[in-house]
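FORM 7B: Structural annotation worksheet

SECTION A. Query
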Amino acid sequence: MSPVVLSQSTLNYLPTAVRRPEYDRSAVRVGIVHLGVGGFHRAHQSMYLDELLASGEATEWGICGVGVLPEDAGMAEVMAKQDCLYTLVEKHSDGTKTARVIGSIVDYLHAPADPEAVLERLAHPDTKIVSLTVTEGGYNIDAVTGEFDANNPAVQRDLTGAAAPATTFGLIAEGLRRRRDRGIPAFTVMSCDNIEGNGHVAGRVFTAYARLADPDLGEWIAANVRFPNSMVDRITPRTTPEDIAMVRDELGIEDAWPVVCEPFTQWVLEDSFTLGRPPYDQVGVQLVDEVHPYELMKLRLLNASHQALCYFGYLAGYRLAHEAAQDPDFARFLLDYMRLEAVPTLDPVPGVDLPAYQRELVERFSNPEVRDTLARLATDGSDRIPKFLLPVIRIQLAAGGPMERSAAVVASWARYAEGADESDQPIQINDRLADTLRETARQGGTAFIDNRALFGDLGDNARFVAAFLEASDLLHTLGARATVERLVGSD
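SECTION B. Predicted structure
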């Protein structure tokens, strides 16, 4: 039997084992505009809203996805062909799969192709929330000052006002300006990216941009827009051709861009919204007054552990996350990093058993069905390491505590950034600073950590430098596996 080509008109022909939207999608109004519709958003925020719609709730909270980058044209094409539907497949560690078609995205716009349509959607009275998954680097923060980088060329182009805005900042600021001028209340900006205090950061950068464009608008945004903090969690690897083939051959669905993910999902959200919100609490979202403890837990345990795993694992010859995480020495290294170095830097986390959470993380990383790649985890290290790992090092140095494992992770990043593994096979460095990283890594010594744009003054700290150099020497003389063995044997 031929697979069913996914669209609104073919939903009734899908295999019975695949859950599909049974609500009337034509009756769902757009209330949320989401910028950055990648795999994670489609596995996470869209899924929660789909659950609400399936229960008969939130019909005024449908999602309009927006692609901001030129390369989002591919997603725009797929969304148009499939009526914004896609298949979400949860992969369990025992090999079973749970599949459903998500229908909560009801429109999709590509800003480079039609910026005016995006601006009018942002300005529409029905739009009450604008949510973001634009990656850690998408907030345009200077790594040294921690402030908005007004010298970014794309930002400078938007600030001239000579053409339609092309950046996230320009689009949102112009959408808010139109609302202000039309007497429409401001929407909420809801960051869902892996940044400590992501709501605070979003508020700071969007307000900074607006003040540069129009000081009065900047003040209006500061006074009227809310930026709730959030913590989001679900391992969602990039969709591969094999995933597309699996959905076609095993599920009988022709879907050009399905999403695969782990079964685990978590969303902790500050309950602070300008114009209301969907009843997220009805579908498992933790609505809290203070997200910060949960954010730190996730960033310094899960996200930083991904960094601890990916460079060492790739250099040792592994290519998939579960392969490295199933290695007893690598698993012990992750647990030791979390227990001895990261956990002492955390605030108390209400309702969370931290030892159990750490063990669960290693189990999640070890799921052989998810097949997350170490190369994906190693992407954009210059955005991730400073946010996930360096705060742990700084706090431990100040307290006189252990940070040797964290320093070794930095050394593994530097060794990876040299651009060749231990078999002298080339490594493709996917990072906005790839050339700089490669150059300083190959110089050896402290050149890599002397980059103050990334490390600030850490390169001046004798303890950190000594730990980095010791791990770097082991990596070059003995290799990644032996270095991990030494580190886990040092406890």
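SECTION C. Observations
The mean pLDDT is 97. The CA atoms of residues 141 and 147 lie 5 Å apart.

SECTION D. Sign-off
Analyst initials: ____
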